[in-house]
Predict the structure.
Amino acid sequence: MNLKKIWEVREFSTVVILALEILFFTWYLWPDGSRSHPFFNAPNFVLIFKYSAIYGIAAVGAAIVIISGGIDLAPGAVMALSGVVASQLFVERGWGLGTSMTTGVLVGLVSGLVTSVLVVVVKLPPFIATLGVMGITRGLAFIITEGRYFDVSSQLLGGWRPFGLPADWVAPIIMILLALVFQFLMTTFQWGRAVFSVGGNETAALFSGIAVNRIKTSVYVISGVLAAVSGVVLVLVQGQGKADLATGYELDIIASAVVGGASLAGGRGSVIGAVLGTLIFGVLRNALPQIPGATFYDRLIVGLVVIVIVVVDQLLLKKRG
Amino acid sequence: MSTATGLQFTEVRKSFGAVKALAGVSFDVREGEAHGLMGENGAGKSTLLKILAGILQPDSGSVDWRGERLQLGSPREALERGIGMVYQEMLCFENLTVTGNIFAGRELTRGGRLRHAEMRERTRVLLDELHLPISPDATAQSLSAAYRQLLQVARALAFECSILVLDEPTTALTDAETDHLFSVLEKLKARGVTLLYVSHRLPEVFRLCDRITVLRDGRFVETSERRSVTPDHIVRAMVGRELPPRAIVARSALPAGTPPALAVDGLGRRPCFLNVSLTVNPGEIVGLFGLVGSGRSELLETIFGLYRAEAGRVRVAGQPIDPGSPRAAARAGVALVPEERQRQGLLFNLTIRHNLVLPDRTIKGDLLVRTGAERREAQDLVNTWRIKAAGVEVPPDALSGGNQQKVVVAKWLATSPKILLLDEPTKGVDVGAKFEIHEIIRREASRGCGCLVASSDLPEVLALADRIIVMREGRIQGQLAGAEATEEAVMHLATHEGTAA
């Protein structure tokens, strides 16, 4: 691949931004004397990956929905419901860890199916359909917990090492695997091209013989399932299941997908880009609290970053086009 | 006539990347005349108009009006200088009323509040003046395509304009509506409005215009007085070559018992069409003629499975096809080249390669995208159908209208259909591309594909079809073949009650 091609790769600018961001914080937080660097060290990067993965897994689904020309507002609430269901089964019912988690993921499957029925059969605009599903899933999470929380961490054996890996690596590995799988599906499978087609021009896609309804169903089911995986991972990372988990995450997830190059008009975007987008925010959330006095600025800075990145991207796109 | 009047284009240049859309065009339009601008797709007409409308800025060169330099940074500035535009692709706000559309962006206000009554009244007067029987309060959505086009003319006229630019305004209009538009244009001309009229329809240009300018490949070819030239001369100037004579394809007789490529039996979908039965044999080109609103587009779309019929059935090569599924129809060998290529035919977020192979791959149900094979196949299609493109890995928005249309036709031919449905296949397409598309249709027919061509362009139907089916108000009015298919006979069926053999 020559340089020009790399420049044209959509994810390139996202990688550049991420690299610049890391360089900036490495320089800004450079420690005095011989103390170890508070930001630029391996354990901290694992931490960034771990917390980003909670957003990143769901962002894969969100990016796919956005590319298809839709929008999903439910991921935050679905994360909470799947997390609550999995942790309740595990803590109160004494189910095995694997079965509880799988059931939690199935919650996402059901919620995704409900969304797709609302969008495809009832023909509600995706914004409204997923707004409703968001309310329902969040509500169910509250009904199940009745204000309690389920303490997963005390039930997990100390030094829990799934597949012989450190527990902290689980979430990043799941995120990276899912991102690669779906990037592959989106770029080299007919299904992926159909998703881009539906998002680019739904009428023309229909006129080309694409089963538009099936494609729409698939994207909302994937988004639901991936949000549920995120929810289960969140419970494992935080160690407890409760109804107000992941409140407001849907907007961070959508922002990640957009920063990663997805166009809310549909037809444009990338799965890897969305994951890189969550890493950009993950680094911000990790590094800002280490700057004295910056704590109160982090939401503001996150907001500014979204706007700056998208504007810069549009300018670059114009220059290239 | 002094040089300080009229509209003067001087060495106007505009490039898009490596493509020179305008390579230094100079000509003048006299004040108060009707000036025809002609050229094949890709000749640079649209770019020139966009510069005049303030949508694009020239790379170099100038446009002067009454001796004054026009530097138009936006469509609004063009309007303020008295340049009104009527576009080929209908731009209208479907959710707004007729009044809302006419005043969109230029609403009359007092202290920031809309003056509804006054705008409504002015709209009513304007509609009266144009003899348009529509209510100022009707939503644009509820209007037919023809009225939406006339609404655009009304919009351009709502404010005093001294130059009115019309880009293919009659593509969606019937002859009667075209007459109507022309009487309005004649009136405007008499009032001293300068008209710049862009069309592929020679008879219209010859009817309206005083002088005709021809562009080819972004260059000025000639400006001639209408009185001193013939249509043939203009065609030669546009194409830059003699058109080859129409190829006569010898057709062998079908073996007895061959099922028709398409058999439609008692198909109905209220309120669009009722009890439609027709057959198309392999290798036959059948014209489906009807005016706007006759139900021909809806019929084709129903055959293709975009809508579910209430009654009747469709068989392809003797096999019934599942109703209501474009996928099933496409798998059975039906291909539809839709009327609106921009809205229904092309994906602008994907490259030409994707566009060209999409139906074929969707029908085959392949799992993987094989980029290498697709690229070769797309390049083959581009070469075979002579699609002028910078490559197969660019989006189709860089193509001219005719080449976009060829992409839409080619993507379906790649599926080797048994029955090819074409809805206005040469709408808004120049003479050269039109000729090529006709050749493509004939080639497909000689391959054994049945072709059903819906068109409101009567000369096209007469030239192309072996047999003509005429529709009116959702019903088949009759069929004409061979010598009995004359212009008069077809128009008679399309506009009057009655039946023919």
Remarks:
- The mean pLDDT of chain B is 85.
- The CA atoms of residues 347 and 355 of chain B lie 6 Å apart.
- The interface with chain A takes residues 304, 306, 326-327, 329-331, 336, 338, 343-350, 354, 358-359, 361-363, 365-369, 411 of chain B (CB under 8 Å).
- Chain B is about 35% helix and 25% strand.
